[in-house]
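// run 5 | inverse folding | seed 20
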């Protein structure tokens, strides 16, 4: 078995690699459209099937690792992800692309909650675990977008090579995760109870469900607007970002498209790190402020057709993406019982991917009727509204926490005052 530091590294690599697959097709969408001649609506369908498959996985096997262990679920998901990459590589039309997206979506959904829980389980402390688990998506998405853009522009086999490379990476990681010790799985008392527990776990997990331990529900509900704001913006970049850069800002290099998309998610890594050196409340407000400011800058850039301003806005918004998401992961990781982290993070990703997908799907349909630039600007305005709601929810949560702490101290003082030592 790996030592704890090595386990932590492998778990982080698996978490990042999972999201690398999610972003790798993004710079290729314009290529697919030109090659196979499908419409913006068809592109929306390709995006939709991925999201639906991902949500189906989160609802069915998202919490399975809490019952049967992290390793088998993570390994199986990574193998399935490798299969999805091979399907992308051999796709010869829209039908093949849709099948590949379905397999990819289910694999990503099965892996995300499990790898996040695995990172938290093997982290040296909760703070470091929250940093890595919240930075992993940004790292993976950045690598996927930049790698795909570079290979499409400069390498042979531009539509296949990135998928062959990723398939090999996923198979290697699928083997390595078996060497990570299980740290949070409750052990049954006997072999018979193990069999019974396994049968019940599989049956219960395969029934569509989502849930939260009672102790995490208040903080989860308070963080809903924040998670929605963060992932709705990620959905904009990965669904319409390439089209905005090509059609509105007239960027025709696939490599440059990948770089610009990578700027946002690279800044997300920096935002994650910056938020750790500030007090929790300041880190949260840093996230909301930079998120809103960056989106406003990108809206202005689209209206003015200014690529430099768009890149600058993406950079600032990315800082907010990383800081706000790290705050949510840290708060949920601290509140969740260790043996239920898979369930908690699976539910977090269900909400996150709904926010990631529903506005993006609506935007894809709106592009057909209203055009790309008006749709992207309206999407940005929706994002700013979500950030404002998240900020208000943060104020309410902070006041409630202050009141609860004051009430707890008052009760403690009263209890201590009314419990003198009595002697006969």
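// decoded
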């Amino acid at each position: 078995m790996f030592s704890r530091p090595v386990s932590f590294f492998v778990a982080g690599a698996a978490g990042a690699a999972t999201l690398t697959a999610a972003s790798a097709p993004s710079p290729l969408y314009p290529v697919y459209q030109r090659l196979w001649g499908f419409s913006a609506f068809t592109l929306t369908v390709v995006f939709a099937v991925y999201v639906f498959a991902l949500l189906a996985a989160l609802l069915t096997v998202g919490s399975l690792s809490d019952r049967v262990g992290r390793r088998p679920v993570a390994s199986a998901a990574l193998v399935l992800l490798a299969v999805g990459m091979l399907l992308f590589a051999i796709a010869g039309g829209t039908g093949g692309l849709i099948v590949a997206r379905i397999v990819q979506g289910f694999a990503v959904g099965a892996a995300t909650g499990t790898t996040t829980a695995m990172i938290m389980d093997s982290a040296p402390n909760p703070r470091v675990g929250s940093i890595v688990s919240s930075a992993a998506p940004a790292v993976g998405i950045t690598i996927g977008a930049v790698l795909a853009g570079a290979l499409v522009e400069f390498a042979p086999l531009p539509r296949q090579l990135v998928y062959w490379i990723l398939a090999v990476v996923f198979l290697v990681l699928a083997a390595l995760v078996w060497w990570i010790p299980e740290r949070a799985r409750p052990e049954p008392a006997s072999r018979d109870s193990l069999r019974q527990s396994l049968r019940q776990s599989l049956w219960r997990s395969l029934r569509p469900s989502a849930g939260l331990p009672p102790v995490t529900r208040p903080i989860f509900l308070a963080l809903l607007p924040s998670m929605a704001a963060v992932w709705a913006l990620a959905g904009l970049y990965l669904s319409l970002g390439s089209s905005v850069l090509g059609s509105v800002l007239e960027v025709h290099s696939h490599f440059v498209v990948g770089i610009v998309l990578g700027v946002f998610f690279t800044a997300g890594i920096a935002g994650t790190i910056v938020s750790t050196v500030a007090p929790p409340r300041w880190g949260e407000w840093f996230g909301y402020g930079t998120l809103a400011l960056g989106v406003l800058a990108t809206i202005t850039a689209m209206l003015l057709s200014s690529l430099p301003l768009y890149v600058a806005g993406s950079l600032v918004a990315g800082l907010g993406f990383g800081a706000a998401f790290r705050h949510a992961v840290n708060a949920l990781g601290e509140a969740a019982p260790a043996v239920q982290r898979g369930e908690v993070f699976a539910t977090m990703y269900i909400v996150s991917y709904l926010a990631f997908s529903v506005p993006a799907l609506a935007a894809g349909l709106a592009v057909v009727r209203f055009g790309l630039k008006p749709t992207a600007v309206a999407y940005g305005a929706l994002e700013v509204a979500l950030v404002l709601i998240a900020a208000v929810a943060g104020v309410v949560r902070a006041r409630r926490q202050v009141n609860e702490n004051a009430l707890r101290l008052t009760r403690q003082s009263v209890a201590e005052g009314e419990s003198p030592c009595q002697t006969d």
